[in-house]
Each structure stands twice: as structure tokens, then as C-alpha cells.
Amino acid sequence: MRLELPRHAERFGANIIHDIQKVYELDAGNVIDQQFSDPFHVVQQVSAEQLHEVESQMAIIIPVKNERLRLLEGILYGIPHYCLPIIVSNSSRNEIDRFRLEQNVVENYCRFAKKNYLLVHQKDPVLALAFEKAGYPHMHDEAGLLRNGKAEGMLLGIALARAMGKKYVGFIDADNYFPGGVFEYVRIYSATMAKAGSDYAMTRILWHSKPKIVDDQLFFAKYGRVSRITNNYLNLFASQHTGFETSILKTGNAGEHALSMPLALELDYSAGFSVETYHFINMFEKFGGILPCPCPDVMKSGVHIYQVESRNPHLHEAKGDEHLHEMIEYSLAVIYHSPLCMPALKQEILEELHRQKILELGQEPLRPRIYPSLKTIDWNIFSGHLDFSDISNVQHTFIQN
Ligand code: GDP
Ligand code: CO
Hints:
Blueprint: E1 2-4, E2 9-12, E3 15-18, E4 21-25, E5 43-45, H1 48-55, E6 58-64, H2 69-78, E7 84-89, H3 98-113, E8 118-121, H4 125-133, H5 150-163, E9 168-171, H6 179-194, E10 200-206, E11 210-214, E12 217-221, H7 225-242, E13 257-260, H8 261-266, E14 269-270, H9 275-287, H10 296-301, E15 303-309, H11 321-336, H12 343-355, E16 370-371, H13 379-384, E17 397-398
Parallel strand pairs: 3-15, 4-15, 6-7, 6-9, 7-8, 8-17, 10-15
Antiparallel strand pairs: 1-4, 1-5, 2-3, 9-13, 10-13, 11-12, 14-16
Helix pairs in contact: 1-6, 2-3, 2-6, 7-11, 9-11, 11-12
């Protein structure tokens, strides 16, 4: 793959946020062209070997809840062979057992492609027990099972990837229509992780465009309504602390993102759909140098955040206005409730939520639940409760209640 070098970056404490990088070539061949090592060259080459090296240590976590089976299957087609897909389903199991249908699709596909995978259901009591015994009771609901929510599914996926010894995790939503787009996202993850400037790294995808039908014509929108709002307030949030206006944050709602395992285990996570925006907030809080930092290692190494623009357009399921409102409220809520958010910005957020007809004047945004970092988990105990010790020799493994 050929990727634009990260040229411009802004620093917030130990966080180094790189401006958008473009993809120049989806496949750059196998021979390293030395010209690309020239410090004045603006594009870098990542060889197939380097990509495969990272991919063999990367889990791709696919959160899924009642999505069309064809879409879920399509995702699998797009994931490079060496990556381990971890499908975390929270699909309904009532009249129609959708999870069973997902299992059929995944099992069939992976048998023919000779691909390892892990498929779990978020409500599997075995998983809840493993978290509880390993010292992480934070995600349990009243019934003692793991809570609903995309973030909760993601955390479960990270823990499973860690238990499998993976060094990187990447996320791909299950409602993507283009397997080719999925393939590109994963390649972007592995290319940036191969070249990352520190053990603590995150890559976030900026979609090239999102096709829509407007007046019977295809229209390729650049930013969605939610991202426009989230990014604006994230940038204001960052600016208020440096005193310099910025527009560097362009991926506040990037569902498509990847993390190195050390960073994934260091972060706290916010529930539901606020999880991606909260990454930034949490990194500002933890590594921004304003609040006391509990992690000197990270402060020393620095955290590199890459934002990469894909070439493929992004087409996923349209989920309606209510979902957009929920996304806006959750995204702005985590900015609003941060101890670093200044009163003037809080006021602006309240006005925005009022303008969007999400809150009445005088109402405060909800306070999403925050899950502490996963690093306190006792991994021996966690793995001891799950029977997937030798997935590298097994074609398909599956935990089920
Ligand atoms: P958007 O694309 O950010 O607007 O949000 P989506 O509604 O498409 O959700 C993103 C992904 O998370 C999709 O693949 C959903 O199926 C999945 N998802 C949503 N809720 C849950 C949940 O409670 N648990 C799990 N595991 N996945 C979920
Ligand atoms: Co979606």
C-alpha cells in the first residue's frame, strides 16, 4: 500500500494528532522502492510483508446487531486472510434465532475460505462470568449478563482479542455494503500500524464519501450531519486548552478505527454510541498533560493518532433520524461532561442540542456510563473460563450457551 506521509500534526500533551493522510495506491507491490525512503518524499510505501506481519497479529472485531446476513457475510469476504475476525453479536434470539442464522453464514463461509474466526453472543453467560471472575464487573446488567450496546460489544471484542494474544484490534461495522471498502479499511489499519511512531497508536478512517440519492441523482456527500457537529465541538474543545483555533479533528465518530493493544487496554470507554468521540476526550483527559496522568509509560512514548481518508465510498444501512439524534446527543454529551470542558463551551453545546431539537432549554445531556480501562483484568482467569486455547489450530471456534 502507498500512503501519504503524515505531514502536519498537532500535539496535545502526549497526544500527537496527525492530519488526514490519503491513500495513493491500494497495492504498492512487493519490492521496496528506496525513493520512498527519501525524507522529502511525501508518500510512504508499506510492503506486503509488513502488512501481513501486522495482519497476522490483528483481530478484526465486527459488532453486529440484527443486520442483514448478506451484509455480515460480505464483511468476511473483505477481511484479509491473516486477520482473525471476532464477530460479537447482540442479535435477537427470540422467535427467530438470528444468532443461529449468523452462525450458519459465518461457519459456512469460513469453512470454504479456510479461515479462523471467533463468533460470540454478547449475552452468553460464560462471557459475563469470565469478566466477573477476572475482576471486571463493570459491564454487567441486573441479570448478571453483559449490557446491551455497541461499546459493550467492542470491549468484549478487545478482551477476546487480548486473550487470543493479538497485538492490534480493528473495528468494522457489520452493515457495510462494500467488501472492497472493508478490505481497504483493514489495509489502512495494518499500513499505519506497521509505520506507527509508538506502541500506543490509533488509526481512524475518514470516509472518502457517502453516496446518497438526491433528486434522483447520486450525490457523494463528504461529511455526515453527525460528524460535522461532533468534529466542530471536538475542535472547540481542543482549541480552548491550547488557545489556538484548530480543525485537526476530523474523525470524531469514526466507527472504523484500529488500536494497538497497549492503547486499547489503557483507555476508558464510554457506553453506546459515544464510544468513538470519547476516545479523543479520554486521551485529552489521560494524556493531555492537564489532569494528573496515571500512566507514565504512555506519556514517555507518546500516543500517535492517524486519520486516513479511504478511496472507497462508504455505503451502510440508513438507520433514520432518531438514530442520528441519539448519535449527536451521545457524542456531545461526552464532551459536555468532561472535567476539561469549559463553561462557555458547555453553554454552546446546550444551545446546539436545543437547535437540533434534541433537548429542551434547561435540560442537560444524558451522562453515558464510563467503563474503566481493561488493564486490571486478570487474563489468566479470563482465558481460563473460555475454551478457545488453541484457535490457531482450529478452523472455527465458537462459544455458546
Ligand atoms: P452507525 O453506523 O454508527 O450509524 O451505527 P450502526 O447502527 O450501523 O451500528 C454500528 C455497528 O454496531 C453495526 O454493525 C451494528 O449492528 C452494531 N451494533 C449496534 N448495537 C449493538 C450492540 O448492542 N451490540 C453489538 N455487539 N453490536 C451492536
Ligand atoms: Co452503520
